[in-house]
Amino acid sequence: MSMEIGTDADPQHWHEQTDAAGGHRLNALRAAVLGANDGIVSTAGLVMGVAGATSDRTAILIAGVAGLVAGAMSMATGEYVSVSTQRDSEKSILRLEAEELEAMPETEQRELAKMYEEKGLDPELATRVAAQLTAHDALGAHADIEFGIDPNELTNPWHAAWASMIAFTLGALLPLMCVVLAPAGARIMVTVLAVVLALALTGFVSARLSLSPRLRAILRNVIGGLLSMGVTYLIGSLVGMGIA
Questions:
Q1: What 3 state SS string does 142-164 have?
Q2: Residue 206 phi/psi, 5° resolution?
Q3: Could you report how far apart the first and last alpha carbons of the chain are, in Å?
Q4: What is the CA radius of gyration of the chain?
Q5: Residue 232's CB: how many other CB atoms inside 10 A?
Q6: Structural domain boundaries of the chain?
Q7: pLDDT per position as a tens digit, 86-122
Q8: Is 232 in contact with 52 (CB distance < 8 Å)?
Q9: For 60, how many CA atoms within 13 A lie in the half-sphere containing its CB?
């Protein structure tokens, strides 16, 4: 049986590249959904707490905008630091692996063949696969099977930071606009209904992306959001009464 590995014309190799790109996009979409969900819940809790303490639209708007900006910056900073740490780790792993490949290439090739044997290939085929992958891209082959890293697709901290900040901001704008623009008498009800619908949507999308039960994800999102808004509104009301 003949076998060509590591060529761009190989349909299997092309399919694996496509799957890898799709995986990156899927992870980015999951992060965006989670960021939007955080923006909805945290900002809704904040503005509901302030609305419980005062009916002053300006005070609610100021608090909501401050919470939105602080939350978006916090998300961006947290993602940047986290992903930068991951990228530094990936670079260190690749550097050490490159040094090992340069110092003992034959040993590393035998190690690669052994890993493919453990994946289920027979020893002869594993040896041929390891030899061809080593000739094509030794570092890429070892990084992939040992650490799940693609040297050409390292994580980007700036992409993660911007995506998180934008997703959080878009999610936070919903409860903020509802509580500010709705009539005073309907402010709480409109905000609660809008947040419930938005959280149901993000729960549905997250369940679709993770192939998990949809109803459970939706209920978890909605109940968590309602609990957050309820607790902060109650505390805000108590504080407002105490100040009055």
A1: HHHHHHCCCCCCCCCHHHHHHHH
A2: -65, -35
A3: 85
A4: 25
A5: 21
A6: 31-243
A7: 889 989 989 998 898 889 988 888 888 888 888 888 8
A8: yes
A9: 27
- Token readout for 135 is 């000739």
Q: SS3 for 189?
A: helix
In the chain, what percentage of residues exceed pLDDT 90?
26
Residues in the chain: 244
225 neighbors 42 (Cβ within 8 angstroms): no
The closest alpha carbon to 221, from 241, 233, 237, 205, belongs to: 205
Continuous H helices in the chain: 11-53, 57-103, 105-118, 123-142, 157-181, 187-210, 214-243
Judged on CB neighbours under 10 Å (0-12, 13-18, 19+), 115 is: middle
